[in-house]
Write a structure and sequence with these properties.
229 residues; 5-stranded mixed sheet; 27% helix
Length: 229
């Protein structure tokens, strides 16, 4: 047997209507809730005058840079002078104070004066052989007479029988003077000394000449010491 349902008792046909009605009720409840909350927030029964609103402005303090104080320089410590009191009879040592000005050396500034340095004169050349040899005044004969007359035979050599020929060398300058006598062949210290003495005391010679000019000439002279029997 087939069961038949009536259209009035079928709830499936009204399901959509009830769902839509539920949505409407929920939306209405939300709307009423939102409206009520906004009213509570916007108006609470107190009127606020714009003139009563005081805006507090934040004041930022101005900070100035901190000044650094420089401490004063330390004062120099001065040592107190110690005065020594002495009796009137005690000796007092005198102290001489020398100032720096007394010790200072003063430099005198003068103009630059050119210094002329004289070159030393070149020593004349000494010749060994020249055209005209130097000559004793009066010639060789007068030279022999001079030697015989001025030579003093040393007593020691006479007693010991010492004799011989001493060779003496010297320089005849361009003015005829005799310089630099020296013994080149000695015999005995006493005889050598006597030969040098006689040669050094000779008068000026006639100077030697080379190409018509007076020059220095080195001259060699034998001085003979001989004992007579």
């Amino acid at each position: 047997m087939e069961i038949k349902k009536s259209e009035s008792a079928n709830l499936e046909s009204k399901k959509l209507t009830w769902i839509l009605l539920g949505f409407i009720l929920v939306l209405a409840a939300h709307f009423v809730a939102f409206e009520w909350t906004q009213y509570e927030q916007e108006f609470d029964g107190t009127l606020i005058d714009a003139g009563d609103i005081v805006l507090e402005e934040e004041v930022i303090p101005i900070t100035m840079p901190e000044k650094k104080t420089i401490p004063p320089p330390p004062q120099a410590v001065t040592q107190a002078e110690v005065l020594n009191i002495v009796e009137d009879d005690a000796p007092i040592e005198e102290t001489t104070i020398v100032s720096a000005e007394d010790q200072a050396e003063f430099v005198e500034i003068t103009e630059d004066i050119p210094i002329v340095v004289e070159e030393p004169e070149k020593e004349e050349e000494i010749f060994q052989v020249v055209e005209n040899q130097p000559e004793f005044p009066g010639g060789m004969a007068e030279l022999m007479k001079y030697l015989q007359k001025n030579i003093k035979y040393p007593t020691v050599c006479q007693e010991q029988g010492i004799q011989g020929r001493v060779i003496v060398q010297f320089v005849v300058n361009s003015d005829g003077s005799i310089v630099d006598p020296q013994v080149v062949k000695p015999v005995n210290p006493y005889l050598d000394k006597e030969a040098l003495r006689v040669v050094s005391s000779m008068p000026n010679w006639k100077p030697g000449e080379q190409r018509g000019k007076k020059v220095r000439v080195r001259f060699t002279l034998p001085v003979t010491f001989r004992l007579s029997n």
